[in-house]
Amino acid sequence: MKKIITILFIGLLTISMSAQEKQTEKTQDPNAPMFEFETEVIDYGKIELNADGVRVFKFKNIGKSPLVITKIDSSCGCTVPKKPTDPIMPGETGEIEVKYATNRPGGFSKMITLHSNANEPVKRLRIKGIVIKPESSMVKQKSTVSSK
């Protein structure tokens, strides 16, 4: 009796697991809008403190219907993205402006998350770089005190 119950339990568990796998599979709409970015990572490189932190992600809608970006989130308040206000028609290009606050020295890597009606509804972009302090105009002079 215990063997039968164990076999039934394992069978039900297997069936429920395969049913969950089928539910998570999504069919892609062939007419859905699609992003094609020139780059998904913008590397600022080394930039000076308080330099211009504005960069632009350029993309094209290679899908068959208008692309609408509903919301853009950033991983911190130091990164301010600006989304297109109008839908991007098929074959047209669009831009997402990102402004990073360059008032803090050090390295950074920030994520920008797009929410849209594209075949990939959540898209992540990244900016990275290093903010450096500008070289001081004062030149260090050798000490005139000697230790004899």
Task: Give an overview of the whole structure.
By secondary structure, the chain is an alpha+beta fold. Helix content is 16%, strand content 40%. The chain has one helix and eight strands; from the N terminus they run H-E-E-E-E-E-E-E-E. The strands form two sheets. Strands 1-3-6-5 form a four-stranded antiparallel β-sheet, with no helix packed on it. Strands 2-8-7-4 form a four-stranded mixed β-sheet, with no helix packed on it. It is flat, with a radius of gyration of 26 Å. It starts with a helix and ends in a 16-residue tail after the last strand. The relative contact order is 0.22.
Strand order of the largest sheet: 1-3-6-5
- DSSP helix fraction: 10-25%
Strand content: 35-45%
What's the total count of β strands? 8
Query: What is the averaged pLDDT score?
Result: 85
Categorize the overall geometry: flat
Please state the structural category. alpha+beta
Gap between N and C termini: 98 Å
> What would you report as the Rg, rounded to the nearest angstrom?
26 Å
Q: Outline the low-pLDDT stretches.
A: 21-25
Give the oligomeric state of the chains in this entry, treating copies of one chain as homo and distinct chains as hetero. single chain
Helix and strand pattern: HEEEEEEEE
